[in-house]
Design a protein that fits this description.
The protein has 9 helices and 10 strands. It is α/β, with parallel strands linked by helices. The chain folds into 2 domains: 180 residues, Rossmann fold; 99 residues, Rossmann fold (3-Layer(aba) Sandwich), CATH 3.40.50.1100.
Length: 301
């Protein structure tokens, strides 16, 4: 019989968890802590959103909501759009992505490479909130089907079934703190759900933007647009991340650890280091949600 080889879809997940060696080494040594980075940029389309994108499409297929050849519509700030464009290419769907026009050129180009169409909305007209409303309007007009990452339970399910168990296994159950940037909240909700089911004392920390900060991938939603998948009772603490400290940490991650990551990943690390200063004998894991090469045009590096 011919050997069965994996497809590109099969390479989503099972990402490395690595120990930081230089950044915050003095703090970790003093308090007997370890900071671990979950390298989600190793997914095939380059981000943690690959997990949710494939999960949402698979689940919609199982429920008979979509079938190959249909048109999918999604509002996105970048990584979910790239992941959905890849997933749509794999499974045979047309993809229309709606996003604010202030997103990096690299992310737009990546979506286009996978064959997606995109609609740019004026950032000053309401940003992601306006994009979300437009996606639902287009669905009501019969132009496609919205998977709706903000309300779709298959989003956090990807992390309940994948990212959370991986972190648990990779740390042999020793994880004490989990840190994630908060955007659509699928990652932090799903991972927290799983980890707390294994060890209720695991502390969950969400990184949110400080007032005035505009960090791609980190959001604080108004009450009217709070993602329906978010479970606030799962998040124990929040860290407000300043724009400049996130950008500086992104440069440090590349130069001191060899991890070329995006700005929201660096923001999560800022939160992880603050945590490491307060606790002892801790195993702290944070999500490196994507790669830094899709932010080069922003001149951060």
């Amino acid at each position: 019989m011919m050997k069965k080889y994996p497809t590109i879809e099969d390479t989503i997940g099972a990402t490395p968890l690595v120990r930081l060696q230089r950044i915050a080494a003095d703090i970790c040594s003093e308090n007997n802590n370890v900071i671990l980075a979950k390298l989600e940029g190793n997914n095939p389309a380059g981000s943690v959103k690959d997990r949710a994108a494939m999960s949402m499409i698979r689940q919609a297929e199982l429920e008979g909501i979509i079938k190959p050849g249909d048109t999918l519509i999604e509002a996105t700030s970048g990584n979910t759009g790239i992941a959905l464009a890849m997933a749509a290419a794999i499974r045979g769907y047309k993809m229309i992505l709606i996003m604010p026009d202030n997103l990096s050129v690299e992310r737009r180009q990546a979506m286009k490479v996978y064959g997606a169409e995109f609609i740019l909305t004026p950032a000053e007209a309401g940003g992601m909130e306006y994009a979300r409303d437009l996606a639902l309007q287009m669905q009501a007009e019969g132009k496609g089907i919205v998977l709706n990452q903000f309300a779709n339970p298959a989003n956090p399910l990807a992390h309940i079934e994948g990212t959370g168990p991986e972190l648990w296994q990779q740390t042999s159950g020793e994880i004490t703190h989990f840190v994630s940037a908060m955007g659509t909240t699928g990652t932090i909700t799903g991972v927290a759900t799983y980890l707390k089911s294994q060890k209720p004392t695991v502390h969950i920390i969400g990184a949110q933007p400080a007032p005035g900060a505009s960090i791609p991938g980190i959001r604080k939603w108004s009450e009217a647009y709070q993602p329906e998948i978010y479970r606030p009772e799962l998040v124990d603490d929040f860290e407000l991340i300043e724009q400049l400290e996130a950008e500086e940490m992104a440069r440090r991650l590349a130069r001191e650890e060899g991890i070329f990551a995006g700005i929201s990943s660096a923001g999560a690390l800022v939160a992880a280091i603050r945590t490491a200063k307060r606790v002892k004998n801790a195993t702290i894991a944070f999500i490196v949600c994507d790669r830094g090469d899709r932010y080069l045009s922003l001149n951060i590096f």
